[in-house]
Amino acid sequence: MKKILLLSDTHSFIDDQILKFVKQADEIWHAGDIGNLEVTDKIKKLKPLRAVFGNIDGTDARAEFPLDAKFSVENVAVWMTHIGGYPNRYNIRIREEIAKNAPKIFISGHSHILKVQFDKKLNLLHLNPGAAGNHGFHSIRTMLRFEIEKGEIKNLEIIELAKRG
């Protein structure tokens, strides 16, 4: 079993509140718009990290992290990208490929809107953890955590951190 913490859109912000949850997880997944790499460096000192770069990320993040991360954990196929869209409104860049080879979990960030939605057509779980950072229009900073065990996704929780700013 793996305990996963999923966050996105930190925009160079990380605090003790986020790090408290990092310490409780087995792996951290960051869905882009990292900002300053001090964010991912702090996470990597504590736990294994999987991340993708987002549209605000510079050459340093783009050199270290991919646009798309496709991997498997506990027999669950995962596709994580920053700008991915939502069920029935996937980004044109990924639309054809996701229809042909859908993962069990599809993760995107970018919107700063937390969303958990099952795509019945593609039989996948779409996750967007919202925004953990202070930059943007969201009012509450959010993340998601869940467990993956033997092909199952369990105990999905929304984490509300604090008001932005």
Distance separating the two termini: 35 Å
Indicate the overall shape: globular
Strand order of the largest sheet: 3-2-1-11-12
Order of helices and strands: EHEHEHEEEEHEEEEE
Q: How would you characterize the largest beta sheet?
A: 5 strands, mixed
Proportion in β-strands: 35-45%
Tell me the radius of gyration: 14 Å
> What percent of the residues sit in helical stretches (DSSP H or I)?
10-25%
Number of strands: 12
Number of helices: 4
Mean of residue pLDDT? 96
Segments where pLDDT lies below 50 for 5+ residues? none
Describe, in short, the structure shown.
The protein is of the alpha/beta class. The chain contains four helices and twelve strands, in the order βαβαβαββββαβββββ. It has helices at about 15-25, 40-45, 60-65, 90-100, and strands at about 1-5, 25-30, 50, 70-75, 75-80, 85, 90, 105, 115-120, 125-130, 140-150, 150-165.
Report on this model:
The chain is of the alpha/beta class and 165 residues long. Helix content is 20%, strand content 40%. The protein is built from four helices and twelve strands. Strands 3-2-1-11-12 form a five-stranded mixed β-sheet, with helices on one face. Strands 4-5-8-10-9 form a five-stranded mixed β-sheet, with no helix packed on it. Strands 6-7 form a two-stranded antiparallel ribbon. A hairpin with a 2-residue loop joins β11 (140-149) and β12. It is globular. The termini are far apart. The model has no long low-confidence stretch (mean pLDDT 96).
